[in-house]
Amino acid sequence: YSFAYLLLYPNHISGTYGWHFQYLTIIGLFLSFLTFLLGTLSDLTLSRQLFRIKNLLSITAAPMSLLITLLYFSLRLIDPELVVPAELELPLPTDLSFHFNPTAFLLVDILLLSPPWTISAIPAMALSSCIALGYWFWVEACYAKNGFYPYPLFDVVGFEARVGLFVGSA
């Protein structure tokens, strides 16, 4: 539904460098989609290898999705325009499909349907730091081409606070 919405209702972001993948939300949504696609395929084929890959991917997708949900709704409580400019405001069902549903479904999968994670704290922190660093470089590359950051918050806080935001989120 969410990706269909992006295609059916294009906006100015649709024609920019990075498309909607400038947004951590869309990257997280894509990882969630891949996780569930692999889960479905592993269930249909009874493939242990696909199931193993799905479980490894969920180690990345679930924490990222939870972070996206917590940051998004927390910042919206402070000021909605820190995360979504008024002209890009979404209808509530669509907004939930981007920012809440992936986390809810991944948490149900992780907590009730999947084996326990096999990653310890240090590799998990290293993985999270690599993702944050990669996203930071990606956001700056998009900014260099587009002349704006995907989230208005990044412009508002300035460089030092942006570094703090990325480090704190990792």
List the helices and strands and how they pair.
Layout (H helix, E strand, L loop, with lengths): L1 H7 L15 H22 L2 H31 L13 H8 L1 H13 L7 H26 L5 H18 L1
Helix pairs in contact: 2-3, 3-5
Can you give a write-up of this model?
The structure is a single chain. The protein is mainly α. It contains seven helices and no strands. α2 (24-45) runs antiparallel to α3 and α3 crosses α5. The longest helix is centred in the middle third of the chain and has 31 residues, at 48-78. The radius of gyration is 17 Å and the shape is globular. The two termini are 28 Å apart. The mean pLDDT is 90.
Q: Return the structural class.
A: mainly alpha
* Total DSSP helices: 7
The Rg value, from CA coordinates, equals 17 Å
| Order of SSEs | HHHHHHH
Q: How many strands, what sense, and barrel or not for the largest sheet?
A: none
- Helical content stands at over 70%
Sequence stretches where pLDDT stays below 50 over 5 or more residues = none
- Report the count of strand segments: 0
| Overall mean pLDDT | 90
Q: Which percent band covers the strand fraction? A: under 5%
Taken from the alpha-carbon principal axes, the silhouette is globular
Separation of termini? 28 Å
